[in-house]
Design goal:
It contains ten helices and nine strands. The chain is of the alpha/beta class.
Length: 310
């Protein structure tokens, strides 16, 4: 099997048909299987999937699993990977869909011919499902080749565009975290570079009530467990850059946080970020300090505006 397309789904009855149809529309010369892992959806998601399996001409490519009770997003994602038999894994969230019929072929061809790369992503089109916000691109790195030094940057790519070599996966991938995507990108970087293809190849649906918009600082702190895992397989990663990265995410993405927790995260970010950029050049050191302080003030202001402090 060339590619396993892993889909996690929960309460996606409105979207799962479009998700699967976008796979069936792929113009791919190789072989693929679709692994659908339903995390015990209480709606009609299962009925719709089973109907597609039984009636669609390509329904036999779908392997369906249902978790009872549900596992949660990270464990369900890893469960879907464990069922994959392909040389490569492509990820597609159950509420997203691919918008480029050559996506699989482009990413497959790229990794087949570039042995020093372990993964490939692409840009995606962000769609705001229940908010009046204009759609836009997601990735800050479209068209770029990324190595370990780049993978602590923001907006590498959205998960539904990611395609990687299955053999990079490790059995001790942490399950108590919230950011499986960040961990996966960093893990991929332990074994090769990542290419972000320039085109928009997937949608990324955003909802006002999504988990990523309502996470607390206590939950975000769980992601620090990613650091020792990544250092185990990627000893060349800078521990300071990893710490700065996760302190930044704690400052930025926690929707509910105390001021004390924010100040602690800000201090951790400031120290790690400045030290990671330390230079004996007074100008470079000054710029690192200035930019770190600017970032902290900016995030503090956003927290106040969003009334995130408790």
């Amino acid at each position: 099997m060339d590619v396993s397309i892993c889909i996690t789904t929960y309460k996606h009855e409105k979207y799962i048909t479009q998700c699967l149809e976008s796979i069936f529309a792929q113009e791919f010369s190789g072989t693929y299987e679709i692994i659908v892992c339903n995390d015990n959806s209480p709606d009609r998601t299962e009925d719709i999937i089973l109907e597609i399996i039984n009636s669609h001409p390509k329904g036999n490519t779908v392997k369906y699993f249902k978790n009872v009770p549900n596992l949660g997003y990270v464990k369900n994602t890893l469960f879907s990977f464990s069922k994959a038999s392909g040389k490569y894994i492509a990820i597609l969230d159950g509420d997203d869909y691919w918008i480029d019929s050559s996506k699989l072929q482009q990413q497959f061809d790229f990794l087949e011919t570039h042995s020093d790369f372990a993964g490939a992503g692409a840009d995606s089109l962000v769609i705001y499902e229940d908010l009046e916000i204009q759609s836009h691109g997601f990735s800050n790195h479209a068209g770029n080749e990324l190595d370990q030094d780049d993978l602590t940057d923001l907006k590498i790519c959205q998960t539904s565009t990611f395609f990687f070599r299955k053999n990079i996966l490790k059995e001790d991938f942490p399950t108590g975290i919230i950011s499986a995507d960040r961990c996966l990108y960093l893990l991929t970087g332990c074994f090769g570079k990542i290419k972000i293809l320039p085109g928009q190849m997937s949608t990324y649906r955003q909802f006002s009530a999504s988990i990523s918009k309502n996470v607390t600082s206590e939950i975000m702190q769980k992601d620090f467990a990613i650091i020792p895992f990544i250092k185990k397989y990627g000893p060349d990663y800078s521990i300071l850059k990893l710490k700065a990265y996760f302190y930044y995410t704690l400052m930025s993405y926690s929707n509910v946080i105390t001021k004390v927790s924010f100040y602690r995260a800000a201090a951790g970010y400031f120290i790690a970020n400045v030290l990671s950029k330390f230079s004996f050049s007074p100008i470079k050191l000054y710029l690192a300090v200035k930019w770190s302080r600017h970032t902290i003030k900016q995030k503090y202001k956003i927290k106040e505006q969003n009334k995130s402090f408790i």
